[in-house]
């Protein structure tokens, strides 16, 4: 890109995030006046901010930035630039020609070693996110393990503090890698890769957060998955995510042995009464029980008895139930309800999940004293019924009435304006109410209730006559500006759950 | 924005060049810096509190910041710690549109968001800059931001050699 330095021109950003070079016309005198003053302030942006900007870039982009000027070069070596380090298939690779599959990325050990030597001591979080090339990932993990061992020995300055600051580790296994729409075949990790992973985990002594997602191990492997972590980090680990360690029922007892664990996100097939009993004597605050598309279709829940003693032993712990099923594939797949657990939230992320009377009444019945968040994310692929008797309006009001702690409700099916007004009035602690404008029916379709005063009935009738008046009244009740959501906003909506980050 | 509950009182702020702006308490509390100030005087004193002087923010920038905080006053704001480990990259279309501004304004916005301690706004604006840096050569980056090349040929060669491991091959 050729750039002429001229006072009569400048850079602007257009809609495609492209910077474009523009001539400044006479009518743009204001900008022109500013330019001489502002010229090249960017090289003196405070370190803290440049550090933040660099951290969003890839390794090679950071390299280009380091060549820009001496100040930016210095920023390249600031620790927060390298705070989070992601390893994907071709990270630190070179291309190698393979007779059968053409050019393939192969881990460049020299590059990887230089990388670890230079910046390995700054890394706090490692995310390993392969999509197909497990050999490179395995080699990288081996190299990192070796570096950490060397740095701990302390005799060679090359390995000074490499990996000593790692507190967060994430490993996401692409267990669907060979899937096609009709025949979803699920592969697991295991074997050599698992050995490498476990060796690395053993070297990480300061882990606060560990996320192992979709490993799909064999039972005999799963039972020993956390042996090393438990030995290294049983006092320091605070946040543990174990999703689909296996595809079949296989409780992981280790989860209950981390003394300072605060948050556990686990799939129901890896949890049982004995795990719960162990967990009840830890300082656990949030237990998310999470199912996704790869979880078994109907895992067994823990028993009423186990939940009862869990509540007694650890009354502060909150349970969250969530199911995420993004594919449209057919098949029965239900949220596993944990009977009489202290459930604070029930959330769904699936285009198909529809509220039914049976399900909702069970949820209300079991969790009415604790439930504070309920909702469905994503736009549905089904049409919700329009007639009052077939809609979910009365179920929602039932929930609002029965669950005094309800604070957040996300509705994607059709409801009427009068129902929304009633909901806002009935659920006294409600402060988040998400609805799709497209599915709100402007109508007063509730029969007169004997408990309502004449005044209330009138208010309901008048306020439910338009979107605007409904929004205005609900804003007043919720004490904040409240609007219904466009489908675009609703599609991107994420229900706020405590410490739920995968 | 016409519905302001009684418990969300008006607050005034004054920019470095002396322009006064009115906004609401709920909006201005998105700024960690101002939140700290207000906590010191106690919320009861907010009604009688005078305009808050902001020495480091000019009126043009303050106007932009206020537009943003008023739009986001009801949203849950992430803390600066949460932002550091943020992985999701979703940007609200409103914000995307909001960030369509020239580099000078963006520079002022970043420094203002930093001074006022508004983590989400700082994340958005710094991320915007990162997006502009992407896929550009060092020379293109220099030209874009009007940065002077202060390397000697020997120096640049040394840096290139040192950091070569970063380059994708």
UniProtKB/TrEMBL annotation, chain A:
Residue stretches making up the F-box domain: 39-85
Pfam families attached to this UniProt entry: F-box-like
InterPro entries, per database record: F-box-like_dom_sf, F-box_dom, LRR_dom_sf
Stretches assigned to coiled coil: none
Organism domain of life: Eukaryota
PANTHER family reported for this sequence: F-BOX DOMAIN-CONTAINING PROTEIN (PTHR20872:SF1), PTHR20872
Protein name: F-box domain-containing protein
Automatic annotation (TrEMBL), chain B:
Domain SKP1 component POZ: 11-74
UniProt GO BP: ubiquitin-dependent protein catabolic process
Keywords annotated in UniProt: Ubl conjugation pathway
InterPro entries: SKP1 (IPR016897), SKP1-like (IPR001232), SKP1-like_dim_sf (IPR036296), SKP1/BTB/POZ_sf (IPR011333), Skp1_comp_dimer (IPR016072), Skp1_comp_POZ (IPR016073)
Pathway: Protein modification; protein ubiquitination
Pfam families: Skp1 (PF01466), Skp1_POZ (PF03931)
Domain of life: Eukaryota
Keyword S-adenosyl-L-methionine among UniProt keywords: no
Domain SKP1 component dimerisation per the UniProt entry, residue ranges: 120-166
Family: Belongs to the SKP1 family.
Protein's name in the database: Skp1-related protein
Annotated organism of origin: Polypedilum vanderplanki (Sleeping chironomid midge)
């Amino acid at each position: 890109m050729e750039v002429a330095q001229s006072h009569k021109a400048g850079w602007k950003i257009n809609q495609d995030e492209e910077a474009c070079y523009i001539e400044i016309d006479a009518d743009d005198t204001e900008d022109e006046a500013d330019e001489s003053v502002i010229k090249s302030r960017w090289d003196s942006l405070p370190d803290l901010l440049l550090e933040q900007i660099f951290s969003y870039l890839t390794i090679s982009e950071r390299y280009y930035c380091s060549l820009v000027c001496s100040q930016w070069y210095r920023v390249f070596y600031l620790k927060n630039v390298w705070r989070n380090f992601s390893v994907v298939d071709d990270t630190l690779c070179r291309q190698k020609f393979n007779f059968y599959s053409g050019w393939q990325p192969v881990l460049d050990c020299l590059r990887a070693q230089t990388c670890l030597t230079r910046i390995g001591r700054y890394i706090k979080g490692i995310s390993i996110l392969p999509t197909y090339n497990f050999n490179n990932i395995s080699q990288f993990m081996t190299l990192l393990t070796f570096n950490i061992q060397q740095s701990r020995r302390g005799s060679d300055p090359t390995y000074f503090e490499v990996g000593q600051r790692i507190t967060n580790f994430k490993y996401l296994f692409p267990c669907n890698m060979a899937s096609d729409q009709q025949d979803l075949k699920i592969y697991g990790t295991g074997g050599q890769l698992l050995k490498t992973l476990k060796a690395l985990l053993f070297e990480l002594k300061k882990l606060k957060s560990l996320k192992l997602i979709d490993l799909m191990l064999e039972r005999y492997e799963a039972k020993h998955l956390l042996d090393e972590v438990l030995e290294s980090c049983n006092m320091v680990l605070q946040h543990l995510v174990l999703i689909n360690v296996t595809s079949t029922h296989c409780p992981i007892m280790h989860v209950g042995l981390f003394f300072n664990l605060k948050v556990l996100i686990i799939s129901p097939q890896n949890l049982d009464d004995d795990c719960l009993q162990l967990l009840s004597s830890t300082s656990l605050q949030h237990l998310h029980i999470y199912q996704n598309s790869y979880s078994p279709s109907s895992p067994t829940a823990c028993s009423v008895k186990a939940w009862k003693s869990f509540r007694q032993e650890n009354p502060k712990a909150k349970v969250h139930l969530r199911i995420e099923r993004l594919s449209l594939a057919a098949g029965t797949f239900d949220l596993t309800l944990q009977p009489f657990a202290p459930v604070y939230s029930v959330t769904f992320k699936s285009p198909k999940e529809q509220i039914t009377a049976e399900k909702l009444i069970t949820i209300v019945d079991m969790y009415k004293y604790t439930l504070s968040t309920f909702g469905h994310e994503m736009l549905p692929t089904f049409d919700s019924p329009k007639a009052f008797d077939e809609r979910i309006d009365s179920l929602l009001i039932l929930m609002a009435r029965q669950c005094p702690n309800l604070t957040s409700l996300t509705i994607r099916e059709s409801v009427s304006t009068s129902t929304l007004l009633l909901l806002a009035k009935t659920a006294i602690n409600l402060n988040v109410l998400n609805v799709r404008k497209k599915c709100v029916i402007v109508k007063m379709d509730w029969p007169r209730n004997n408990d309502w005063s004449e005044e209330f009935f009138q208010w309901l009738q008048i306020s439910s006559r338009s979107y605007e008046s409904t929004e205005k009244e609900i804003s007043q009740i919720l004490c904040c500006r409240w609007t219904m959501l466009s489908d675009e906003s609703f599609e991107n909506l994420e229900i706020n759950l405590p410490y739920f980050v995968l | 924005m016409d519905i302001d509950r009684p418990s969300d009182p008006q607050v005034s702020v004054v920019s470095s060049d002396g322009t006064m702006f009115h906004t609401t308490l709920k909006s201005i509390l998105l700024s960690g810096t101002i939140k700290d100030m207000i906590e010191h005087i106690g919320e009861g004193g907010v009604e009688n509190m005078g305009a808050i002087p902001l020495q480091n923010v000019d009126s043009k920038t303050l106007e932009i910041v206020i537009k943003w905080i008023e739009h986001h006053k009801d949203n849950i704001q992430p803390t600066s710690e949460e932002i550091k480990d943020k992985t999701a990259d979703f940007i609200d279309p409103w914000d995307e549109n909001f960030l369509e501004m020239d580099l000078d304004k963006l520079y002022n916005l970043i420094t203002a968001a930093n001074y006022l301690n508004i983590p989400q706004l700082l994340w958005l604006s710094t991320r915007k800059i990162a997006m502009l840096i992407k896929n550009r050569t060092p020379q293109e980056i220099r030209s874009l931001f009007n940065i002077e090349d202060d390397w000697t040929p020997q120096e640049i060669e040394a840096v290139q050699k040192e950091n070569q491991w970063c380059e994708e091959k």
